[in-house]
């Protein structure tokens, strides 16, 4: 039962109470941050955030699938014919318009590095299949060309290009 | 002192909710609860313990996101937490040291209950629920310490689960059932992890009952005299929310000093070596809060006897309300029993000291003085027997002293200060 | 009231120091009195000492002792021996990248399925000297060189203990029989009674399967510091202490900030408490 004792009600607007409450809120926020941040990727996961790959393993006209951040990455060594076919496409016909040049590094057009995850529902497309000789996703029939752009089928976007940089002519750092 | 609720819903939403699920009424009643105005700082430990339980559950659930309960991966998963998980070292340090802080607070809380007679009628169930919480805490802490799968984790688990084997007839079967095998191993670790996650929520439930059982008669107070009227109490909020808040802040200061400046101070280096079933560390010691019981266990030369004595040391607490024959609650007014109480505390400390040492080592300088019955007189074995005596003497004392003592005059009420005939103000400082 | 509170607090303080002494039979020489920059609440690791210590580990210890909890990227992380603020991602740290060039780690060739050795990356764990415990024992006369990732924390008074052992080797006194493949070290816990046939008290200490390693100038430090036995031991202990708890400096830094905040917060709360209780007779 609430008491109505003869003491005076403490004045709730006393500065000291506001200061104490503010300090408490600050303290709680400071404590909350580590509890939230611990769910972010940990040191060992971040260590695998970037990998280096030796391109000399990829034969002309073939691709190698390398694992990066637990996802497959296609490293494809394109033939001049495949590059020419990619460049000859009318951009305005594409569902996700992008020139081939936007998807490779200058002077290194033979190297096409893509995240091998279909932009529809996440399956790994098959290399060299489909009418353009690019990729064909076996799950729902999305068709990609030799630049990894979506040409037919349900996928909305082109195969994603990860961050990468050439450390030398034969070594690339992904991520 | 649970009386009718005085909460009046102010807004439309409050009225709507109040007729469907009166949680706001429930909270308001808790905050307004009439609490004796003379509670001293020993009464802040209930709030401190609630804080500890929340901290352990929050940090524990977070740790469980990264810990792997498998004998070959457990040790390294904890190192992964400390090295790679963002702030993992902090969360693990809080959880490990939080257990020690939790027990420190619970021992003070229990000693307060004994000193001020908080276990006496009508608070017997409150007291018993408290002892149940203590037992659940011991089980939780024991299993938690096994999870890192260090040498001490493994061998501590082996020693303690083995003592259950000393129970006649059923002992060995129960031990095998507990282990899930022929020794402490992966099955044991897995089930301990599951139960270690579960029990704190059981504790939280019993804490709910504990607070409910408290609110029926209302808090005890340092005089042991019942609340007579509204002049004896203040609403829990803001008077005791702020006092408990201040006490928690002091407690956290101590807690932080361990977490940040001595995180391994209360544990044992041997637990930084991964468990090895073929090599026993020397010595095997439990965490400090179990040392007195460990000492009692080893004080009795018979294995089963030691187990029974150890269980008796906790079991006697259940019947405390009925052992004590005194009519006066608070030891503030019972100078004679107070002496036995301090001897009891001293006994706990002696037992704790013994538990940390080898039975055959010499507590006092001068080496060996000669065997008496089964061990050297200058050995921790005999010192722990003395400690056990100092511990157990308190209970017959409670029984007998209540019948023969003359307590000091107790005050009329909480509000009326009392001056005993011909004496100056009461010996204890208030507040 | 206060006296009781102080007494209880003192007891908890004492209880935390009630360390178990060694078993009644074994002895150990009192550990050497040495001090390091990283000790105490205000101590921090000296990065140059950590670099020298890593060199000692690499050149001397890593031939037999693994450090399974360490990865090369740890060397470049904040607080580590080769941390450079210009490279917050340890994978990019040039020192780390140079260091990993020397190592090859076991892997599977994805084309043939054979076991091969490939060049290490910063994400890899420190190379193990032996593939498993049995190989380690076979190469060391049956003794297993312990993993050093946590050795400093796994021993009582770890830094002084490891330092004392590394620098404490001495010729066994006449009358002591030393088992084959072992070496006398007074800082090892042991019971010499059955090996002592000389005059006088049984010497303290025990046997260790590792011979003396830190001969003067065994390691050449890149920063020109003289590589005496004591210096090498001090440096490698500092490195091992860091490896046992890489976040120690961060812990102490945050601790200082937290304690200051808590002191202020406690003070403010106390003032709030006294204000609220001002008018209550209690």
Please provide a written account of the structure.
- The complex is a heterotrimer of chains A (175), B (431) and C (282).
- By secondary structure, chain A is α+β, with helices and mostly antiparallel strands.
- Chain A is 21% helix and 22% strand.
- Chain A is built from three helices and ten strands, in the order H-H-E-E-E-H-E-E-E-E-E-E-E.
- Chain B folds into two domains: 37-263, Cytochrome Bc1 Complex, Chain C (Up-down Bundle); 294-409, no CATH class.
- Chain B has helices spanning 12-18, 23-32, 45-64, 74-83, 88-115, 124-146, 151-164, 171-179, 186-215, 236-261, 291-299, 303-318, 320-323, 335-355, 380-392, 394-404; strands at 34-36, 233-235, 371-372, 375-376.
- In chain B, the strands form two sheets. A two-stranded antiparallel ribbon of chain B has the order 1-2.
- In chain B, helix 5 packs across helix 10 (236-261).
- Chain C is mainly alpha-helical and 282 residues long.
- Chain C folds into two domains: 25-70 and 128-268, Cytochrome Bc1 Complex, Chain D, domain 2, CATH 1.10.760.10; 86-125, no CATH class.
- Chain C is 35% helix and 6% strand.
- Chain C has seven helices and four strands, in the order αααββααββαα.
- In chain C, strands 1-2 form a two-stranded antiparallel ribbon. Chain C has a two-stranded antiparallel ribbon with strand order 3-4.
- The longest helix of chain C has 29 residues, at 248-276.
- The model of chain C is unreliable at 13-24 (pLDDT under 50).
- Chains in contact: A-B, A-C, B-C.
- Chain A binds chain C through residues 7-8, 10, 14, 16-17, 19-20, 23-24, 27, 30, 43-44, 46-52, and chain C through 71, 73, 77, 89-91, 121-123, 261, 264-265, 268-269, 271-272, 275-276, 278-280.
